[in-house]
Amino acid sequence: MALIDTYRNSKLTKEKERAKLVSDKAKEHLKIAVLSKKAQAARDAIKRTKTVSTINTKLKEIDKCTSDIATITKKIADMEEKIVNKEKDIVNYQIKIDKEQAALDKKKQTAEVKLRKDQDKNLRDIGNTLKNHNTLHLRTQSEIKALKDIPEKITVLFLASNPLDLSQLRLDEEARSIANMIRQSKYRDAVRFESRWALQPMDLLQAINELKPTVVHFSGHGSDNDEIAFQDQSGKMKLVSKEAIVQTMMASAENIRLVFFNTCYSKNQAEAISEFVEATIGMNTSIGDDAARVFSSQFYSSIGFGHSVDKAFEQAKALVMMEGINEENTPELFVRDDLNAGDIILVNPK
Hints:
Blueprint: H1 3-48, H2 52-132, H3 134-148, E1 154-161, H4 171-183, E2 191-196, H5 201-211, E3 215-220, E4 228-231, E5 237-240, H6 242-251, E6 258-262, H7 267-273, E7 279-283, H8 289-304, H9 309-322, E8 331-335
Parallel strand pairs: 1-2, 1-3, 3-6, 6-7
Antiparallel strand pairs: 4-5, 7-8
Helix pairs in contact: 1-2, 2-3, 4-8, 6-7, 8-9
């Protein structure tokens, strides 16, 4: 198992442990409420009676309840301390995940640079050989023609935000599914899949400027106020307005052809940004984890087979229906006014 996967599994374990502590803490608070009610009932009984034995019995009940409440209160305090420690562990594991992801990305980029240098050297060698041998010249011409049939490479930038104080989405499963479907597509070598996790506002422009993506994909939480949930430095939710997202995309639209919002209530963001890029996808209501994963992975698979954005969108909806997920009408496709979705092909060998 890769080190980054070990960190992710450890973080998930800590999140589950924290969730159990929060649940147990709520149960202990419920016990206090029951004991408080019981003590109050005893006090009310004392007010209604003049019998000494009854009064003494009720006083003992009150003392017992008070003692039990004190014990439970101490237990709750211990739980709260453990919850704080779990949250610190979760943040530390996220830092390790980000550091490991950065190292993997750097290693991948280094390998790609080396590959490009090797390819350049091979082309120079071929050019020298062509000058000396007519047979090799003809063979090389055939090889060059085959190379021209390979599409120009595009970059898909997957941006994931899963704040600690919101319900946890299975974004890693979505990213893994998209990557697998791209690898199984016909023109898989033409699609470069890059991901950035625990997205903070400062990370967005950094990633766009660094990678110059063709497709920007947001995955995470959205609000019904047209906001997207990023993360702050502590890993908790930081809402970013529709206007800020639109301004960012408008200022970065030179290389971007498609913006995909795989977040709840993102229709308005997508529609606004479609004025500046060729196509956008957004959700007109909330969308479940399974629907988001199935729809996005099939969409990028279709793109990897050289289909148009329109055909990829319709095939993605079809797979959602075949999987029996009744959310095929949640995604919506928007296209710039001067374009047709059927003419927009991101991976085109022709």
